[in-house]
Amino acid sequence: MMPSIKTETASAIQPSHDNMVFQQPPVQDPALLHRSLTQQPHIVTHAQGNYLYLANGQKVLDACGGAAVAIIGHRNGEVITATVEQMQNVSYVHTMAYTTSSAEMLATMLLEASKGMHRLAKAYLVGSGSEANEAALKAARQYFVEKGELQRCHYVARRQSYHGNTMGAMMVSSNLARKGPYNDILPTNVSFVSPTYAYQYQRKDETEEQYSERLILELRHEILRIGHEKVISFIAEPVVGATSGCTTAPKGYFRGIRDICNEFGILLHFDEVMCGVGRTGTYFAFEQEGIVPDIVTLGKGLGGGYVPVSAMLLSEKVVDVLRRGTSAFNHGQTFQAHPVACAAGLAVQNIIKRDGLVERCAEAGKHLGTLLRETFANCKYVGDIRGRGLFWALEFVEDRSSKRPFEKSIKFGEMIQKTAFDLGVAFYPGTGTVDGMEGDHILMAPPLTVSKDELFTLVAVLKQAYEITEQAVKPRVT
């Protein structure tokens, strides 16, 4: 049955002025360089649980965790206490000579989460997902330098992917809008194969297994075209994040990819900055693929938004080569393994483990998926509903039979996002979904602490925003 906003649910998303702290609106030309020079962001006065409170009095359900970051919600007292305690003890050390218990304990916890079928041996802690992926690209190259295979200088990644905004991470990304101004100055030792994106790219006459086999064969051909002896690593998001909106791989795809990497001695690098740390219903998204990468990167939910912190995890295979060679990772950052960031991240991870939030995410994700399918299955412009755990997206198309996306100028997904925000729920819109230029989606990534009532509100408000947008849009005449 289609959800509708009941009186008691609607009241939960109305502006609340209780205990509000108001701030002056920003000046006409603020000193801070925002993402836009023409549009000013909303001032958030405070946040609590799964809600943001704005200076205009609005209360907003954070249904996307910012950018899939606020994994345990906002203003958690345990995390705040742990952060302050660390600052009272030691706020910074230079890792050339020192370490701290918070850094050591966070690294140990991450490796313990990878026990069992996983053989990850070392954790490298930095500030952002981009930094983690940058470190991973360098670690992969150094692995082959230590082995004497200096000819390995090429990376392979996938189209409709994103791995960060630093130069190396952007080089292996395929988010066209974000790369556009910098293409001419980016390194070119990378090539791209097709995304795992069944809704738009699986052929009508293909089974899931055949689609998977075609993608695996494409990677093999690309590696042979380059020269397998030249390839360093294959980089992929197990569940793609904002670029294409929660797209997953067909059955057998990653098993086949792992086999190819093993065959040609290529490292497998999984980027779980957005989809890891329990977001898809298992701690690591790759657990659901039944394989183990050589390198995995984490971010976003690692610190839950309380601090900037991310991680690169290396397998024993990689660490062993470094250990038998120079016995060092030739990469260092001033703020790596920052004690305060690690203390906050450790507190977040302790809460996730203690409260069983990964298991809770898996169950809540089933409920969210059912709600979304029941509510949007027959909507005129909803082409696909996809996701895992609490990581879901709706893809919008102008014509469902042909899967033709809306013209970019219509901004269909952005219209829904803005309407939903006015109704009190924040979603993450995406554009260029299909090929980097065309396509719209809305991404949902609520905190793992989200309640069933909040999931109901999330879906109900999204449906209301969709209906308003559907009425406002005039499709092309064909």
Automatic annotation (TrEMBL):
CDD domains per UniProt: OAT_like (cd00610)
Protein name: Aminotransferase
Signal peptide positions on this chain: none
Mitochondrion keyword on record: no
UniProt xrefs under Pfam families: Aminotran_3
Any single GO CC term annotated in Swiss-Prot or TrEMBL for this entry: cytosol
InterPro entries in the record: Aminotrans_3, Aminotrans_3_PPA_site, PyrdxlP-dep_Trfase, PyrdxlP-dep_Trfase_major, PyrdxlP-dep_Trfase_small
Family membership: Belongs to the class-III pyridoxal-phosphate-dependent aminotransferase family.
ATP-binding found in the keyword field: no
Cofactor: pyridoxal 5'-phosphate
Underlying gene: YOD2
One Gene Ontology MF term: transaminase activity
Keywords: Pyridoxal phosphate
